[in-house]
Specification:
32% of the residues lie in helices and 16% in strands. The chain has 390 residues and is an alpha+beta fold. It has an eight-stranded antiparallel sheet, sandwiched between helices. It has a three-stranded mixed sheet with strand order 6-5-15. A two-stranded antiparallel ribbon has the order 4-9. The chain is globular and about 60 Å long. The termini are close together. The mean pLDDT is 96.
């Protein structure tokens, strides 16, 4: 009997999930795939908590880490659509106290667009060597337990010289945390309330907030380790790029009332919720954004600036955009949007295929940048393309 189109996709993706779990590269996962506006694949597999033998469920909640960035970037674009904010606004117009200097000692001119495109001259502590400038200044990446306010963190950040003149380079950075502070000033409300008003509630993303809406559904966080993933503890370190300090993670941060709302890494939510955002944007932005702004968001804004770790890709207003599939070594179509999250997440949207894929795990960093992400992507396209042959 000839397989249906969906059976080709299911077989291909199931094989990758089963193999990854058998090899103990991840503890658990939720994978959702939408095509043509329909949910064509959904699966929860493995464990949400290995020690308690709690199975992974589709409604599980995950620490979003950088999955937060597209949500907060979308909130900023909603304010732009309302005329309350502009891409060319100087950041100091909204944050008069945030005036970092260039390496030569001159004050830098940073715009909202620089923040949204990660061309503002900033970086992350986890990209620097141990005892780097951010660590010495006490700058938080938004995933640890600093016990400081957002304003205090930005003061520390502004005390450190920028890496480069804004607009001249691209470096993934803490810029979205600064954007979160701008959103607070523009709206006159806490970031959590602003994001709820502008994005999550209009899209019925009721699982998503800067805290766990239901702690019982929150997955336990794990990290890559020999044999099987190890359970993450607060004030834990996860190695990243050789020669850097790595990620400083505190899984319990969400429950600490002194932890500031990180616009780049602080939200918690479900895979299904995030798929709602991706599909709303892919289909033109209704009901939160006009189609013209979504088009701008999903257009490369950085020209040919080099993107370390992401060859063949450019950057829009909140996430990467595929320019050259060969250079990126991916089956994705040109124009595909993609990002991930430190705690073990990846996602991508291929507008040409009307395709949105959300793959959340509870295992850092395999679920963000390990073999699972590339094998899953290849499996999705294998399933789609094999189906087209029949």
């Amino acid at each position: 009997m000839r397989k249906t189109k969906l059976e080709w996709l299911h077989k291909s993706v199931d094989e990758v999930i089963d193999r990854t779990l058998e090899e103990k590269r991840i503890v658990g996962t939720v994978v959702l795939i939408a095509q043509g506006g329909n949910l064509v694949y959904r699966r929860s597999a493995g464990l949400a908590d290995r020690e308690q033998k709690r199975p992974m469920l589709e409604k599980a909640l995950f620490r979003y880490a950088s999955v937060t960035k597209p949500i907060v970037s979308t909130a900023a674009l909603v304010l732009i659509s309302q005329g309350s904010l502009q891409l060319n606004d100087p950041v100091e117009q909204w944050l008069p106290g945030f005036r970092p200097k260039l390496p030569n000692g001159q004050y830098a001119f940073i715009t909202i667009q620089h923040l949204m495109t990660h061309t503002a001259g900033l970086t992350y502590r986890f990209f620097q060597k141990e005892r780097g400038t951010y660590e010495l200044a006490g700058v938080s990446d938004g995933m640890d337990l600093p016990g400081i306010t957002l304003e205090e963190n930005l003061q520390r950040l502004a005390s450190v010289p920028l890496l480069y003149e804004p607009g001249t380079m691209w470096r993934y950075s803490i810029a979205t945390d600064v954007l979160g502070a701008v959103i607070e000033k523009v709206t006159g409300m806490p970031l959590s309330e602003a994001v709820r008003l502008l994005v999550t509630h209009p899209l019925s993303m009721l699982d998503t907030d800067f805290m766990a809406v239901d702690a019982d559904r929150l997955t336990t966080a794990y990290a890559d380790s020999a044999g099987e993933p190890r359970r993450l503890q607060d004030f834990d370190t996860v190695p990243f790029v050789e020669g850097t300090a790595g990620f400083l993670l505190s899984p319990g941060r969400f429950a600490d009332k002194t932890a500031y709302p990180s616009g780049g890494a602080g939200m918690i939510g479900s895979a299904g919720d995030f798929l709602k955002l991706l599909e709303a944007l892919r289909q033109g932005g209704n009901p939160i954004l006009p189609e013209a702004l979504v088009a701008e968001m999903t257009t490369n804004q950085i020209g040919s600036l080099e993107m370390p770790y992401w060859p063949g890709r450019g950057f829009g207003l909140g996430f990467t955009l595929l320019r050259d599939p060969v250079a990126a070594n991916t089956p994705e179509s040109p124009g595909t949007w993609r990002m991930g999250g430190t705690y073990g997440h990846s996602w991508f949207v291929d507008p040409s295929e009307e395709l949105s894929v959300v793959a959340f795990t509870n295992t850092a960093l395999e679920g963000m940048s390990g073999r699972f992400t590339t094998e899953l992507c290849e499996a999705v396209y294998k399933g789609i393309r094999e189906a087209k042959l029949f």
